[in-house]
Specification:
By secondary structure, this protein is an alpha+beta fold. It is 26% helix and 26% strand. The protein has helices spanning 114-122, 141-149, 169-184, 197-214, 221-234, 278-293, 367-382, 385-389, and strands at residues 3-7, 17-23, 30-31, 36-41, 46-50, 55-60, 67-69, 73-78, 187-195, 240-243, 246-249, 255-257, 259-261, 264-266, 269-270, 307-311, 330-334, 338-344, 347-361.
């Protein structure tokens, strides 16, 4: 019987090894051509390895958690279908299924009367939890019934107090990059708050027609991407990065949008976002978000961003200090929209407010530039017509 080898495919760019994640097939199971067999985790993405041919899953050569190089043998697929389970002999009468065994109950202490022992066992009362009142401390039926009235019961079963799980390659890479950012950059954070009243009113007015025309929902992230790009054009240092002893100013605007996944936080990139309409930005964010949740992101999807926006508000965060995504020099943090009393024209009004946070590398971005950038984002969101007029 011939066998088809399953090998580690090329992993793109400089990635030479991966960790075997979850096997979707076990030995002797039937396999269809192109069916997902196993997941491989790299420093940046999780990729799927599909079956090169139909057949039966053979021996698994690389177990879950193993580190494998490009071209390494993961397993084999044997030709032919999986063996069928033997059918029952139609001429023979199947034996009757045995009656289920009664569930064992804990045995109370020997000092129980027969009636007390029966009630205690039926109600799962621990042996030492009932004090006997009869001669010699013997536990009577009345003692057990009294214990039931007082709510005595067996302690709930507890799981293990600790669980040790090996970090995924993606999680390790996230940890390394965040620590690198803290160790390398001179990170400061400046804060402001934005009144979301105008942009929420605009969204409520046009969201139905927007979705009908463009096939995508109108969210808030598109407005913030637009607002950030205008601010980046005014304060180019926020869109720059340090390369050795040089500062590299970027004249393109590839905006990273942080997305939470079960594997960890990833930052796919909306390319040339300055050339996109609001609908184009929302479509790009939606497509990348779906790829992230499905584990379909490629290295190219997450490489080369110039500035990042992270929205902790979707998880309920009211205020945070985001960490810069190196080699970028700044990151904008969005937060929960919360109604608060604010002074408007000398009067107190309830407005939907959001805190903004800009973490920046003080090595190339001065405090004045950081504050000015955040003020421009605030102005653009509070007066969204500015985004249309580019003023």
């Amino acid at each position: 019987m011939s066998a088809q080898e399953i090998k580690v495919p090329p992993l793109r760019e400089s990635i030479t090894e991966a960790t075997v994640g979850k096997w979707h097939k076990k030995p002797c199971e039937a396999v269809r051509a192109d069916e997902i067999l196993v997941e491989l985790e790299t420093d940046k993405i999780t990729m799927e390895v599909n079956a090169p041919a139909a057949g039966t899953m053979g021996e698994v050569k690389a177990q879950e958690g193993a580190v494998v190089k490009v071209g390494a043998l993961l397993g084999v697929i044997n030709a032919g279908a999986a063996a069928a389970k033997p059918a029952a002999n139609a001429n023979k009468t199947a034996p009757a299924a045995p009656a289920p065994a009664p569930k064992p109950v804990p045995a109370p202490a020997a000092g129980f009367s027969p009636a007390a022992r029966k009630i205690a066992a039926e109600n799962n009362i621990p042996a030492g939890s009932v004090e006997g009142t009869a001669k010699g401390g013997r536990v009577t039926k009345g003692d057990v019934l009294g214990a039931l009235e007082r709510g005595v019961a067996a302690p709930a079963s507890q799981g293990p107090r600790e669980e040790r799980v090996k970090m995924t390659r993606l999680r390790k890479r996230i940890a390394e990059r965040l620590k690198e950012s803290q160790n390398t950059a001179a990170i400061l954070t400046t804060f402001n708050e934005v009144d979301m009243h105008q942009v929420m009113a605009l969204r409520n007015q046009y969201k139905d027609s927007f979705e009908k025309k463009h096939g995508v929902k109108m969210g808030f992230m598109g407005f913030f991407v637009k607002a950030a790009i205008q601010a980046l054009k005014e304060i180019p240092a926020v869109n720059a990065e340090i390369d050795g002893e040089d500062i590299v100013y970027k004249n393109h605007y590839d905006i990273g949008v942080a997305v939470g996944t079960p594997q960890g936080l990833v930052v796919p990139i909306v390319r040339d976002a300055d050339a996109l309409s609001l609908a184009g930005i929302e479509k790009g964010i939606g497509e990348l978000g779906k790829k992230a949740r499905d584990g379909k992101l490629t290295v190219e999807d997450m490489t080369g961003g110039t500035f990042t926006i992270s929205n902790g508000g979707v998880y309920g965060s009211l205020l945070s200090t985001p960490i810069i995504n190196p080699p970028q020099s700044a990151i904008l943090g969005l937060h929960k929209i919360q109604e608060r009393p604010v002074a408007v024209g000398g009067k107190i009004e309830i407005r939907p407010m959001m805190y903004l946070a800009l973490s920046y590398d003080h090595r190339i971005i001065d405090g004045k530039e950081a504050v000015t950038f955040l003020v421009r984002v605030k102005e653009n969101i509070e007066d969204p017509q500015r985004l249309l007029l580019d003023v």
